[in-house]
Amino acid sequence: MNALPSVLGVVDYYEPWWVQIIKSVVFFALGLQMVPVILLAERKLLGRFQGRPGPNRVGPFGALQPLADIGKLAFKADFRPRTSIGWLFALAPIISIVTAAAAFSLIPFGDTVDIGGTKVGLYGVDVSIGPLYLFAFGAVAFYGIMLGGWASGSKYSFLGAMRAAAQLISYEVSQGLALLGVIMTAGTLSLTEIVNAQEGMWFIVPQFVAFLIFLVAGFAETNRAPFDLVEADAELVGGYNTEYGGARFASFFFAEYLNILVVAGITTTVFLGGWLLPFGIDPPHWVDPIVVLSKMMAFVFFFVWIRATLPRLRYDQLMSFGWKILLPLATLNAFVTAIIVVLHDNGTI
Amino acid sequence: MAEVVFFLAAIGALAGAVGTVAVRNPFYSVLALVMHLLSLALLFLLLRSEFVAAAQVVVYAGAVMVLYMFVVAYVGGTSMPLGPGGTRSMRIGSIVFAGVLFVELAIAILGTGLKALGTEGAPYEPGFGTPARIGELLLTKFLLPFEIASFLLLIAAVGAVTLARRRGGLHDAEEQRITPLDLVRPVSTGTMAEAVGTRTNATTRERTGLEYGGHSGRAGPEDGDDGERTGLEAGVAPGGDTGPEDR
């Protein structure tokens, strides 16, 4: 009956099927709820950075603005250009949002806890292949963008999708190599184990180079400024989602922000000790998700800050930076880490 | 549950494989191949080899097929549907080769006698298919094939670069290098910090009495500095000041 979940998980205890269903619902709802929050936070912060109030008309302090936006988008009529390819046009946003939600389930918000006699892991799924799962869904997510751009039958969409393709494969390599350093240091692929391995010292200290590389590549992967050439609005109108409107556009938009949360969550988990607190503070287990969420929100703030600060790169600069600086640096980091890990295991250091 | 997933994935894999060769539009052909590869990954997952499944998706669907799609979307697309091209002899040759391959595969599969069909299959041991186990095998039992395969990939990469260079594909004439110098440029040569007014040019401020100081981000080299500070701009007269009238 439950063959598939038990295949996916490395958990050494059995989670009843109803726990798994509740967990899926809770995690999806959590992601769903966080997107409007960071959307509002971003617009408010961008306003502050640029010396204007930001949204402040709908609801108290403009707090209902995301709700109004979503309502507007959801009730719009679906339309598509005559040159588009119908079923692919409709499929692309679905791929994007499904893969983003699947990647979100990887973020651990806490260790296994005992709730009313049932052991429940505070994560969607803890796979033995950890980050590879993330990259697998990242690979599939590419098709959402690519098909969206291609099936629109529009030059701007097509150019945006092409840029996305090149950017994604260029920076994914560096991202993977940066994570390799962490994985070698921790000696495991499971994300909860990686967090537990950071007891005493967060990996941002020994793996600082990897942290920087991962962060930069994360900006590129999520199409955020200064790497938002995929949807450079001055050149491409809106990139791959130019021809989209209504709920389909909302799906793309949603997936994009969910991906920001995923990058923030993975960075928190891998480099900032997940639910661990520094200085030996050991709060009860129910605090863990709050700690993780706070760290994620700090990253979201950083993302917005960068967006408000840095101008967009030129396309050739993006490519040459990715391949000629970031990739060699990531390779060197993995190489040096491997040597140090081996020497450490042999007792030389 | 497992049976349902198996049949879904198997149908997907077969349909994808047939679609790859049967569809005329190259873009759909690539999409069908992607579907085939994803279905195969699902089958690997049912065999409890998570690592192989993830590698299948990351490497094939994520890297190889992305490049295919890149090329097809740029070069081919809907405007150039694939036809039954080639000469008569080529068509006959392809049929012959397909037949030979079919016979070979049939011999290989049927030659085993299909003895395992009636059994439960190979037993599952904990730890099978994990990255640790696969890595151990690759570095011990299959070290030589592994190294040969990576060497082959290296040769292919070097060959691609060589071919591209021979055809004049790689010319780096107008290429602009990014160096760390871009980040630590001298004062008042148009750095970002100056553009937002956080870093000010002390000399200019003293001389012109400007409170907020700093140059605009647009400042070019000749708009820039006092000669004695950096001495970089030969064209600027010594002490050539950029007063407020420059802005």
TrEMBL record, chain B:
One of its GO terms (molecular function) is oxidoreductase activity. Keywords: Cell membrane, Membrane, NAD, Oxidoreductase, Quinone, Transmembrane, Transmembrane helix, Ubiquinone. It is found in: Cell membrane. It comes from the Bacteria. The keyword NAD applies. The keyword Oxidoreductase applies. Residues 237-247 have a biased composition (Gly residues). It is a multi-pass membrane protein. Belongs to the complex I subunit 6 family. PANTHER family: NADH-UBIQUINONE OXIDOREDUCTASE CHAIN 6. This is NADH-quinone oxidoreductase subunit J.
